[in-house]
Specification:
The protein has about 350 residues and is an alpha/beta fold. Helix content is about 20%, strand content about 25%. It folds into 4 domains: about 30-95, 2-Layer Sandwich (Trypsin Inhibitor V, Chain A); about 100-165, 2-Layer Sandwich (Trypsin Inhibitor V, Chain A); about 170-245, Trypsin Inhibitor V, Chain A (2-Layer Sandwich); about 255-335, Trypsin Inhibitor V, Chain A (2-Layer Sandwich). The chain contains 8 helices and 20 strands. It has a 3-stranded mixed sheet with strand order 2-5-3, covered by helices on one side. A 3-stranded mixed sheet has the order 7-10-8, covered by helices on one side. Strands 12-15-13 form a 3-stranded mixed sheet.
């Protein structure tokens, strides 16, 4: 029984303290600004902050020829910038003037920018343009408008057409071997622009005759939409020559006479006409076979006897073949020793029968 009385006493004390010192609830009220007389577009950030704090806001457009278009002429609840409200239980209603002669903004979503402009200007709206990347809406197609479609706006007010600039990344087209005008058109169709031009050889070429030879970035690579593509340009002939250059012809030279010259003299003459290689072979005499054309110390004793390209003939090769030997070999080549022949044979007189005579008659 005593224990029960103690528990009751403790409970009574707690209740007394609870009501004598109530727990303060956190304050959630906020000071409501007075938006009347402000342009709606000028207070969008303030309204967004209020929404972040939990305040629900409703905006109404009404025709009022006494107030400029876009000006807030009434709000509920009203405020003198000191009124406190609980955002969780309050709805702020703003009334924006549409001025006089207002019309609904046509819905031009999905149309081309040109068609949208024609429709809006027909309703006496001024038009400006803004582009945004879109992975789903084709380039130059309207995504939406500001103000939005079907809202009342005064005639003569400005409508922003938001159109697609295409994907944020695009594939670079192959514009090589295209005229400059065609290349520019292909780049624009891919939402790219022509960057710097370098002319092959640095010479001046009329735009009408320019052909793209190379491009950077390369064809079929991926780049950001709106990027620049630099090009090397030239004429149609420049393009053909760039990829199929004509080989530089070897200079035509006249072969000097090497026969009778020693190897040192022959090398000097051949170097003057661009011969870089000399193939040598011995004439085959015992003395010639002992010579070494690779030994410069022997060059003055080695003589050219034959050459593969005749003297005074034109040539473009860089190699000549020569036959060498000693000076005696050369002299023998010029004046060969006649091959000895057998002396003529004296014919043996043929015998003839001599008739016998009678001695008695002699």
């Amino acid at each position: 029984m005593a224990v029960a009385l103690v528990l009751v006493a403790v409970l009574v004390i707690w209740l007394v303290q609870r009501f004598d010192n109530p727990v303060e609830e956190p304050t959630t009220d906020l000071v409501l600004a007075n938006f009347v007389g402000e342009y709606y577009e000028d207070v969008l950030e303030d309204l967004e902050e209020l929404r972040d704090q939990g305040l629900e806001i409703e905006v109404f457009s009404e025709v009022d020829d006494t107030v400029d278009v876009g000006v807030i002429f009434r709000q509920d609840p009203e405020s003198d910038n000191t009124v406190k409200i609980n955002p969780a239980s309050t709805i702020l209603k703003l009334y924006v003037s549409q001025g006089q002669d207002s019309v609904a903004v046509p819905d031009v979503t999905g149309l081309s920018t040109l068609a949208a402009q024609e429709i809006l200007t027909a309703e006496d709206f001024q038009v400006v343009f803004r582009q945004e990347f879109s992975e789903t809406v084709e380039r130059d197609t309207v995504i939406g408008t500001i103000p939005q479609a079907n809202t009342l706006q005064a005639k003569g007010s400005t409508i922003t057409i938001i159109s697609s600039s295409g994907s944020a990344s695009v594939q670079v087209p192959d514009i090589t071997n295209q005229s400059l005008a065609q290349a520019v058109q292909m780049l624009e169709e891919s939402n790219l622009v022509l960057g710097g031009q370098t002319t092959i050889g640095g010479r001046s070429i009329p735009d009408s005759k320019k052909v793209v030879i190379t491009q950077t970035p390369a064809a079929n690579s991926t780049t950001e939409s709106g990027s620049r593509v630099s090009v090397l340009v030239g004429t149609r002939e420049d393009y053909t020559y760039y990829f199929n250059p004509t080989p530089t012809p070897q200079p035509v030279q006249i072969m000097p006479n090497l026969v009778g010259k020693n190897m040192a003299e022959a090398y000097t003459l051949l170097s003057r006409v661009g011969i870089k290689h000399i193939n040598t072979s011995s004439i085959g005499s015992e003395a010639a076979n002992k010579l070494d054309p690779r030994n410069e110390d022997q060059w003055n004793t080695i003589y050219i006897i034959k050459q593969s390209i005749n003297a005074d003939d034109s040539f473009t090769a860089d190699t000549v073949n020569v036959v060498y030997g000693t000076q005696q070999d050369y002299n023998n080549y010029l004046n060969p020793t006649p091959t000895p022949t057998d002396p003529p044979t004296t014919p043996t007189p043929q015998s003839s029968d001599i008739p016998e005579t009678d001695p008695s008659t002699a």
